[in-house]
Amino acid sequence: MATEAQLILTSDVSGDPTNVDTGLIPLYKAGNENELDQTTGLGRVHLRSTTNKVLFAANAEGNDLAAKVYIINKSDDASLYVTVTINAQTIGKLYGGDFMFIPWSQTDTSANIEVAATNWTSSTGDIPVEYALFHEDTDYLTNA
Amino acid sequence: MATTTAQLILTSTDLLSDSLSLSAIATLTQTGTNTGITETTGLTRKKVTSTAKGTTSGQITLYTADDFAAIPYLYVKNLDTTPGNKIFIYDGTTSGSPLQFQLDANDWAFIPMHGDKTYKAYATTNPTSIEFMVLGKDQ
Questions:
Q1: Which residue among A20, A52, A98, B49 sits deepest, i.e. has the most Cβ atoms within 10 Å of its Cβ?
Q2: Taking the model in full, what pTM does it have?
Q3: 8 Å CB contact of B8 and A70
Q4: Domain A29-135 has CATH 3.90.1300.10
């Protein structure tokens, strides 16, 4: 039994309601159908910094190997968001309740995944974030 | 009002000693509010025929910068079933580190985007089928 991921998207925005279901898809290593066999487990941090913090540190071995990243903003406040960057490029913004699930390409050692509680202030309260990494590179060490 | 939800399910019974059973459900709303999103590109399926970034044809544009008000939600899936037949999603430029992520066969991604970058796709193999959709608030 592999580790599997499934996305179900439903929407009645258009006249033809959307109901996308990927089904449970195994998380495989790059270029083959061997299962990803390592994980950070599910972690949780409370962000209280508007500057970027390294959530996952890239390493050279990870280039072209498979890695899947899950990050969710667990805040109940829809206005509080977490900025997610790779290689200093903003790739996502997670408002309260939003999640992302993407393959992570560790193209070089600068491809860290970093997060920031961009609109955090001392009066907003911390932004709880949960995260997990499933990967195949053996050199990976978390910096979270 | 329209309602749009995304649910992620992650499961494993043997990766760890403790079985993994995670479910996250997000209601997709307009930026910073509890108001549901109102627009979508619809679910699209195309063939990527370009095998390099920056080519004049054969790439697929998934999203054009600032087309939607932040935050546009992107769903994208590589429909190819042969391992190693990858699709590369990049920010439409050819300098710096434009690669956002790469999808191996059957891989999919879901991400609330920043929205200010154009996303294009090329593949290792011509052709490779891709499915994608953007949901959000048009501007």
A1: A98
A2: 0.95
A3: yes
A4: no
